[in-house]
Design brief:
The complex is a heterotrimer of chains A (about 375), B (about 350) and C (about 325). Chain A is an alpha+beta fold. Chain A folds into two domains: about 90 residues, no CATH class; about 220 residues, Orthogonal Bundle (MetI-like fold), CATH 1.10.3720. Chain A is built from 14 helices and eight strands. With about 325 residues, chain C is mostly helical. In chain C, α5 packs across α11. Chain C has 14 helices and no strands. Helices cover about 80% and strands about 0% of the residues of chain C. Classes of the chains: A alpha+beta (about 375), B alpha/beta (about 350), C mainly alpha (about 325).
């Protein structure tokens, strides 16, 4: 195997980012997970376009409550069709069926799938913020679209079935992925900022400031997160709007996540602080801010990114757990936790198993984050553990 | 009559059996990048009371050779068939079961390492580890094992041996740790001591003490010692014979005095010339030109040809030089050096 | 020896300080709830039909000691807990918190600690096998299972199990006690009933912990295995089980013991949600009720305080255990050489 001198040259002069990305791309499991993750993020961003129905109560299908999933077919006894279609199902209950719900499939009528139809409106960047006090309310109109990827010419098409109120589970799931990711991102961001501040101060100044910060961080870390979370979340009065609640939950997530991150920031800083190149910069007369920004921060950017990605699934899980209990996001907001809430009743478990489909998405999301995080960690620091 | 007897005596002496004989040793490693040849066609022998020094750069295969004697190489090692390592008339390369290997490891052969701190388990007392080894190899009871161990610690020059026996490795100084490791290695009275760079991590004064210790041990117990190092100076002080290795091959071997005074292989000459001249401290250093090639890119023919000043195109990059006798005991593997057989 | 006593004392002091900070945080949270206990109680009475006046509220406030300044109230609360082991009365339910919590807390503790022990009982051998096996495929399979264990949160596993159980067995697996034993006094039969049902929560709670512990043990053993002293021991003739257990395993125990407190923390954290799904009647479920349904901060605060105090205690004990086991910490500078 001849390694050309050109390739060796490239290896020696590659920047840290290039090395990290190359190592990451070479890790097959991480790449697969990464593409899945990217896919999920994209579909969540385009959730409006992809959902045939409005995920809120406005889009419910009164004819098809608690309906099972409808999969489009290409072929029935009447022959083949390029356009996928569905058969209607009607619910029927009567004395002859012992008053149990029974579905009758109407195999004569075909309802064809339409592509790119107009449907319900969805907005981007439209915010309606109601802060306490009249003067602070403001609206951003945003962009409105109404095209969707697919629809159906008559009746409803519910790929994942519907829930008790008739809301399309497919649309709800897509929307939920978006909301969960958004809350998670915001939470990670907040905890990142907090941990940078506290961990940064502790790590950089050392001494008794460090000691104090350490004690406080450790104390908070000892409290089991979800119970603490629950306690804090209970503070939000029910009167708050969903958006406000959204930000509140995200902030809480950030507040709970910072101890672990702060500790890592502090450790990185402490090791880097005593490295010789910092001493060299100080001897050259560089100011503290300059040292922090130009020298220290870049040195552990890759570690911090890894830590952030690794803490993301934890945020996701915490939000899901909270919403599941009822202390997090609530109806009408969709999040994976909210969707899960309805999945625990006994009759759901027995009869409407499709309520569990969002669970699948949650698992896939978390697994891909975990693998990507691990891949990033191995790429950023391959000598950590053989 | 008398003269005939004397003749027989002399004959028997020169045919005294070798303590260790390595024949045709080929060691390969299975890695993600392919099979790497670490040791190529090695022949070595050692008698009782002899110190053989193996010298070479990192990557030359000297450690791998020593570890092969006890089969200590990692799991992806292949010992090519046909190779033999003979101790006491047994080919230890064929040993498969742990029971057989136990005879060798710590029994007939002991090894000391470069990093004494790292070779003692950090959380177990030194005495405990020494006793454990003795109990494995000798049928004695615990009390006797303890006595032997403390006695051994004394002999290597550790003061207050009884106290040290109950201490942990981190409580001893560097030099003492090295001595303790030697004591532990010798407590089972092995026939062969493998010393893998034992003085590299020590400072010069302690280095001298440890070398003296090894020399006195060799004299007292008539052990064979294989001393692995990259430091020619140490070899000159301690060894009787030296083998110079490069990229898995022995390129030159012979008595120490002879090799140092009269080196024949270009690599050995280069190594000796690279040493600073004590008479002319301002002279520029003359390193061996070039870099050791990666084991994945073994040069064809003579492995040294890429860095050799005697390189002859068409000969050195095609033919593989065998170790041949240059004079009694002095062997060279070079196509450009005239030997007995050429 | 002196070193050791010094070490223990320092750790004890630090534990107490941490506990104080935590109790301050918890108490502050309790106090931040809008409306004092007096007002809320009387509002509750109001809904029952009896009229109240401002004087009644004031009288109630004085009775509960709510008119005293913050530090005094904090101090009294702490004193009551430490000296009398009394958490006071629940604001909403008007019963002594101690009565509510006592049995439930011990049950929660039992379940969680058992889960922790079981998780390590499984993780240590499996982790060692995974790290030292010659068959790489076995290692890969085990690694994948541990990834699943980490990624699937406890409550999801609980949900899935519930799904299966309900489909196949009907709704009988929930709860810690069957009907007849719910409030009965302790007896051998009750214990048996408890054990036959408790395995499910223990399994679910331990799920995550086992996966984490497995990964940790595996990484530690791999790390130690490559170290020189293991090869040196091999070179002395030590082999097999002895080589495995006495050398790398013994030295890897340190970080494992260190993480026990944190593992318990995670299990406690997962408890409320699992308790909700599996319909367990113990402290975790009580916590949810008190927060989500009735906004009873006194009760919630007491529960959180108890949980955290347990963790602090466990951390203290593991620190001491570590010092006993690792001579480097014991003999040298605090924190090892």
């Amino acid at each position: 195997m001849e390694i050309s001198s050109k390739q060796k040259e490239a290896y020696f002069t590659a920047t840290q980012m290039q090395l990290v990305t190359t190592r990451f791309f070479a890790n097959r499991a991480a790449m697969i997970a990464g593409s899945i993750l990217l896919f999920m993020i994209v579909i969540s961003l385009f959730s409006g376009f992809l959902s045939p129905y409005d995920p809120t109560i406005a889009g419910r299908d009164k004819e098809y409550e608690n309906g099972s999933p409808q999969i489009p077919i290409f072929w029935d006894h009447n022959g083949f069709s390029f356009r996928p279609f569905l058969h209607s199902k009607t619910k029927y209950r009567g004395a002859d069926t012992n008053f149990r719900w029974v579905y009758k499939v109407d195999t004569e009528n075909r309802r064809y799938i339409t592509f790119f139809p107009k449907g319900w409106e969805y907005k981007y960047f439209a915010y309606n913020i109601n802060l306490p006090g009249k003067n602070l309310d403001f609206r951003i109109p945003g962009l409105t679209f109404d095209r969707h990827l697919f629809g159906i010419d008559s009746g409803g098409i519910h790929l994942f079935g519907t829930d008790k109120a008739g809301k399309d589970l497919f649309s709800r799931t897509l929307n939920a992925i978006y909301i969960s990711l958004a809350v998670g991102t915001l939470g990670v961001f907040i905890s990142f900022v907090l941990s940078l501040i506290i961990g940064g101060i502790a790590g950089y100044y050392g001494g008794w400031i460090d000691g104090l910060c350490q004690m406080f961080t450790d104390a908070v870390r000892t409290i089991p997160p979800i119970p603490l979370f629950m306690c804090l979340a209970a503070f939000a009065p029910d009167t708050w709007s969903s958006e406000l609640r959204f930000f509140f939950i995200a902030t809480l997530l950030g507040f709970i996540g910072w101890p672990t991150l702060a500790r890592r920031v502090r450790t990185h800083l402490l090791t880097e602080r005593s490295q010789e190149y910092i001493l060299a910069a100080k001897l050259c007369g560089a100011s503290s801010t300059h040292i922090i920004i130009r020298h220290l921060l870049p040195s552990f950017t890759s570690y911090i990114i890894v830590d952030l990605v690794i803490s993301f699934p934890y945020m996701l899980l915490s939000e899901t757990a909270l919403s599941f209990i009822g202390l997090g996001l609530r109806e009408p907001v969709n999040s994976l936790g909210v969707l899960l809430q309805s999945a625990t009743k006994a009759d759901v478990l027995l009869n409407y198993q499709w309520y569990f489909l969002p669970v699948l998405f949650l698992i896939i999301l978390i697994l891909s984050f975990v693998f990507v995080g691990d891949g990033l960690r191995d790429a950023a620091d391959p000598h950590r553990n053989k | 009559m008398v003269s005939a007897m004397r003749l027989t005596l002399i004959e028997t002496n020169s045919y005294m059996t070798n303590l260790l004989e390595i024949k045709n040793l080929n060691v390969e490693f299975d890695t993600d990048e392919g099979r790497i040849l670490a040791v190529n066609n090695l022949f070595l022998s050692l008698k009782e009371g002899e110190v053989l020094g193996i010298v070479g750069e990192s990557g030359s295969g000297k450690s791998v050779t020593a570890k092969s004697i006890m089969q200590l190489n990692p799991g992806n090692t292949h010992y090519k068939s046909g190779g033999e390592i003979i101790i006491d008339d047994e080919n230890v390369l064929k040993f498969d079961s742990t029971k057989d290997l136990k005879k060798i490891r710590g029994g007939k052969v002991s090894m000391i390492f470069q990093e004494p701190m790292a070779s003692f388990a950090p959380a177990i007392k030194i005495g405990h580890q020494m006793v454990e080894q003795l109990l494995l190899h000798k049928s004695i009871d615990k009390k006797e094992a303890k006595n032997i161990s403390i006695d051994m610690l004394n002999r290597v020059g550790i003061s207050d041996a009884e106290k040290r026996f109950n201490q942990y490795a981190f409580e001893l100084s560097g030099g003492m740790r090295q001595r303790a490791m030697i004591a532990m290695a010798l407590s089972t009275m092995p026939k062969l001591l493998l010393a893998d760079e034992p003085t590299t991590a020590l400072d010069v004064t302690i280095q001298a003490q440890v070398l003296d210790l090894i020399k006195s041990i060799v004299k007292e117990y008539q052990m064979g010692v294989i001393f692995i190092t990259h430091d020619l100076g140490v070899i000159a002080q301690t060894a009787d014979y030296v083998a110079v290795m490069y990229l898995g091959c022995v390129v030159e071997s012979g008595p120490v005095r002879e090799i140092i005074k009269n080196p024949k292989h270009p690599y050995t000459i280069g190594l000796l010339e690279a040493l600073p001249d004590v008479n002319n401290l301002d002279a520029p250093l003359k390193p061996v030109p070039g870099n050791i090639p990666s084991p994945l890119e073994r040069p064809s023919g003579c492995v040294f040809h890429t860095r050799c000043n005697l390189y002859e195109e068409g000969k050195c990059n095609i033919e593989f030089p065998e170790l041949k006798n240059y004079s009694d005991d002095h062997q060279v593997a070079c196509l450009k050096v005239s030997t007995y057989e050429q | 020896m002196i070193n050791f006593i010094q070490f223990t004392l320092t750790r004890a002091v630090m534990a107490v300080i941490t506990l104080l900070i935590v109790s301050l945080i918890v108490f502050t949270l309790m106090e931040l709830v809008p409306g004092t206990c007096a007002e809320r109680y009387l509002a509750f009475k109001n809904t029952q039909g009896s009229g109240i006046s401002v004087e009644d509220i004031e009288a109630e406030k004085r009775r509960l000691g709510l008119d005293k300044p913050f530090p005094v109230r904090f101090g009294t609360w702490i004193k009551n807990i430490v000296v009398d082991r009394d958490f006071g009365d629940s604001c909403i339910l008007r019963v002594s918190i101690n009565d509510l919590l006592k049995e439930r807390f011990y049950i929660s503790l039992a379940i969680c600690i058992t889960a922790l022990i079981f998780s390590y009982l499984i993780a240590i051998p499996v982790g060692i096998i995974s790290a030292t096996t010659k068959y790489r495929s076995l290692d890969t399979v085990l690694k994948f299972i541990s990834y699943l264990g980490i990624a699937l949160p406890n409550f999801l596993v609980a949900l899935c199990i519930m799904l299966f159980m309900t489909i196949y067995y009907g709704d009988t697996m929930t709860g810690l006690f069957s009907e007849e034993f719910q409030n009965a006094p302790w007896s051998a039969a009750r214990v048996k009933d408890f054990i036959s049902r408790a395995w499910l929560p223990i399994f679910v709670l331990g799920w995550n912990a086992t996966a984490f512990a497995l990964q940790t043990v595996r990484a530690l053993i791999l790390d130690e295995h490559g170290k020189l002293y293991v090869m040196a021991a091999k070179a002395r003739g030590i082999s097999g089980m002895s080589l495995l257990w006495r050398y790398p395993a013994k030295h890897s125990l340190g970080p494992v013991i260190n993480s026990l407190g944190f593992d318990l923390n995670r299990i406690f954290s997962a408890l409320p949600v699992v308790a909700l799904i599996l319909v367990l009647t113990e402290a975790g479920a009580l916590l949810i009720e008190s927060l989500a349904r009735s906004n009873d901060q006194q009760l919630a605060g007491a529960i959180i305080f108890l949980l955290t105090a347990t963790i602090i205690f466990v951390n203290f004990v593991t620190d001491i255990m570590l010092a006993i086991m690792d001579p480097r910490i014991r003999k040298g500078v605090m924190g090892g050489n």
